[in-house]
Specification:
It is a single chain. 29% of the residues lie in helices and 29% in strands. The protein folds into five domains: 112 residues, Ubiquitin-like (UB roll) (Roll); 83 residues, Ubiquitin-like (UB roll) (Roll), CATH 3.10.20.310; 80 residues, Ubiquitin-like (UB roll) (Roll); 76 residues, membrane protein fhac (Ubiquitin-like (UB roll), Roll); 75 residues, Ubiquitin-like (UB roll). The chain has twelve helices and 21 strands. The protein has 448 residues and is an alpha/beta fold. α4 packs across α5. The chain has a six-stranded mixed β-sheet.
Length: 448
């Protein structure tokens, strides 16, 4: 039985080499000898079977193996066929059983399908010489099942890399293909397989934004200066648009703006003859006005108080940046009453015909905290005592986060030496069991 497995990136492949006869278990000496030693020479392939299929068809596996009925093969050829299956992206495990009779080979593959749900998207980060269809076609020559995603399989990753190397060679483009897995370091999500060309000069000489009108393209280009200052990277351009350019649109009420994948071309017009021109298509949607807020789950603050803390006015542009600042205002209103762990879960309801948006906020107020201990470090003891004497929030009183934030600004006068500008670290430590909050101020003076 020949077994080849891969189920983890860069995991050493387990390889066992022996042939198992199908059918009933027999014990003759001749058959034992056959099991211990693979058939020698070439055999005509008479039949292929595949077991373990869930969603794939047998002909897909046979095609990916590269084997054809009626042709002559060696055991080494069957080894290579199993390796091609692993590299195809169709399966994560494969083993085969071989029965040889009178020079004819009867082959059975036992496979475990890869399952697309566990695949990660594949990014061709800086291949501006080719269209996406050209790259996909080149990859499918080595990975027939390629659909824009790939499993965490070293065999599949290496097959994609080799296909890209061959594509560069065919176009006589200098450079080496490198691979780097990518993910969101905080959440572990947004996993990607990123392929890049190293050694090729890809200076960006122009950037455009097809579909832009709500924000003048001139302003978008000025904001995207950092794209022009770097070599081309699809990932960098896409991430830049998703953060910096999205903010420009949100400020104007375009809350549902979307940016398509950047497109790059080499050697465009005379002004960009030897560089890369980057186009980032924009789907702006409509600009929304503020229709109002609806609140649920609140008891410490009334809807009117929450509206006042939010500070948005009906009919004004639904400025995304202003809305973010307004949410901080709501958090401060709760902090003023001792609710230090409050949170808001917003949901948007868009009315495209009226160009209005309503925000529905689910409020989780949490527990109310009271003042605990005041700690002051880094000051002379006499100065620290003066500062403590000015602290008006007594132990056991409802904690006021806004008081803590503004205290130093209003009370340092007459305590520090003239001209002294210490670094001050402020910290609130809630105790979830006692429902108290300790306040710490630490002063650090630097030598002149």
């Amino acid at each position: 039985m020949k077994m080849m497995e891969t189920n983890q990136l860069d995991k050493p492949r387990v390889r066992l080499r022996h042939v198992v006869l199908l059918g009933a278990l027999l014990s003759s000496c001749a058959l034992v000898a056959r099991a211990q030693q693979p058939p020698a020479g070439r055999m005509r392939l008479a039949k292929i079977e595949v077991v373990g299929l869930q969603g794939l068809k047998e002909e897909q596996i046979v095609a990916a193996s590269g084997l054809k009925l009626g042709q002559a093969f060696t055991v080494e050829d069957f080894d290579a066929a199993a390796q091609r299956l692993l590299s195809s992206g169709l399966v994560t495990k494969v083993s085969y059983k071989l029965r040889e009779r009178a020079g004819e080979a009867f082959l059975t593959f036992d496979v475990t399908e890869s399952g697309r749900a566990g695949n990660s998207s594949v990014v061709f980060d800086n291949f501006p010489w080719f269209t996406p269809d050209e790259i996909a076609a080149a990859v499918r020559r080595d990975v027939p099942a390629f659909d824009g995603t790939a499993p965490d399989s070293s065999a599949v990753i290496e097959s994609i890399r080799r296909a890209l190397e061959r594509l560069l060679a065919e176009r006589k483009i200098a450079g080496q293909v490198e691979y780097m897995p990518s993910m969101n370091l905080e959440t572990g999500g947004n996993r990607k397989h990123v392929f890049t060309v190293n050694g090729a000069r890809l200076a960006v000489c122009a950037v455009s934004f097809p579909g832009a009108s709500g924000v003048p393209e001139k302003e978008l280009i000025a904001t995207a200066k950092s794209i022009l200052e770097n070599d081309y990277s699809q990932e960098f351009a896409a991430n830049f648009a998703d953060v910096a350019l999205r903010e420009l649109y949100h400020e104007r009420g375009y809350l549902r703006v979307e940016f398509d994948q950047p497109r790059a071309t080499v050697g465009g017009d005379a002004a960009c003859a030897s560089g890369v021109a980057v186009a980032v298509p924009v789907r702006e949607g409509v600009s929304y006005n503020w229709a109002g807020a609806e609140w649920s789950g609140n008891s410490a603050l009334t809807p009117a108080e929450l509206d006042a803390a939010l500070g948005m006015k009906a009919g004004e542009v639904a400025n995304g940046a202003k809305i973010k600042r307004a949410l901080r205002g709501v958090a401060r209103a709760y902090g003023h009453k001792g609710y230090l762990t409050s949170s808001l879960k917003p949901a948007q309801e868009f009315d495209d015909a009226a160009r209005r948006v309503t925000y529905r906020f689910e409020v989780r107020e949490g527990a109310q905290y009271r003042m605990g201990e005041l700690k002051i470090a880094g000051l002379a003891e006499a100065d620290a005592e003066k500062l403590r004497a000015r602290w008006a929030l007594r132990a056991g009183e409802v904690f006021d986060e806004t008081y803590y934030e503004e205290f130093l600004r209003k009370n340092l006068s007459g305590i520090l030496q003239p001209g002294a500008r210490p670094q001050v670290t402020m910290f609130v430590k809630p105790d979830r069991e006692k429902l108290t909050a300790d306040v710490s101020y630490t002063f650090k003076f630097t030598a002149k």
